[in-house]
């Protein structure tokens, strides 16, 4: 292959013998250094040296026995089950009874709207007596941006509010409420929170009328909320029914 040779001449210094060095640069896979000897003697101590470069073979693309291709991964012992079988199994375990009041029905009864409507559906309802309803807690609810960013927990006051709305579904319908009456939160006692509620939990609430004085529009209810069959929140509620000021 063509070789380019560059010669460098070093003149005589004050305390050394003159010498001439020639550096040979080869355009190939090797770099060689050589010193051309001059006719004038010189000391070997001043001969510039160039470290040799070891020849490096290109890495092999073939797989060694220890790097054999991975065999196909098995996802589960029952990976031959039809698609949807696993989802169906879990869905049956999470299924709720058919709703007696859906979202549209709830909106006709309660004045609350997003983001403060905290009842998703009603599973059981006895006019003037009780109701069982569901609140599905989702991670995209606005309260979780601040309560808390790194550990979302449904605030206890919102759990109480959700139960109060279930009470409103009972109180705002006959035979308790009269046409044009509004529903107000009067008080809550003996509240106990048994466990934190987090996204993914399904809060099943029951509100039952314990006393009702129609003349004064005062209604008392007892409420309990459950998650996975375990008590999560409970309390005694007082509500007031009164004529609302509605503008024509």
Rg for CA atoms: 42 Å
Classified by CATH, the class of the largest domain is Alpha Beta
Output the structural class. Answer: alpha+beta
SSE order, one letter for each helix or strand: EEHHEEHEEEE
Categorize the overall geometry.
globular
Termini Cα gap:
101 Å
Q: What would the average pLDDT be, to the nearest integer?
A: 78
CATH architecture heading of the largest domain: Roll
Strand order of the largest sheet: 3-4-6-7-8-5
Largest sheet: 6 strands, antiparallel
CATH superfamily grouping of the largest domain: Hotdog Thioesterase
**Tally of helical segments:** 3
Low-confidence sequence ranges: 1-47
Strand % is 25-35%
Number of domains: 2
* CATH topology grouping of the largest domain: Thiol Ester Dehydrase, Chain A
According to DSSP, the number of beta strands is: 8
EC number: 4.2.1.59
Main location: cytoplasm
Protein name: 3-hydroxyacyl-[acyl-carrier-protein] dehydratase
GO molecular function: (3R)-hydroxyacyl-[acyl-carrier-protein] dehydratase activity
Task: Provide an overview of this structure.
This protein has helices spanning 85-94, 103-109, 156-171; strands spanning 3-10, 19-26, 121-126, 130-136, 181-193, 202-213, 218-227, 230-243. With 248 residues, it is of the alpha+beta class. The protein has 2 domains: 3-46, no CATH class; 95-243, Hotdog Thioesterase (Thiol Ester Dehydrase, Chain A, Roll), CATH 3.10.129.10. A 6-stranded antiparallel sheet has the order 3-4-6-7-8-5, covered by helices on one side. A hairpin with a 3-residue loop joins strand 3 and strand 4 (130-136). The longest helix has 16 residues, at 156-171. Residues 1-47 have low confidence and may be disordered.
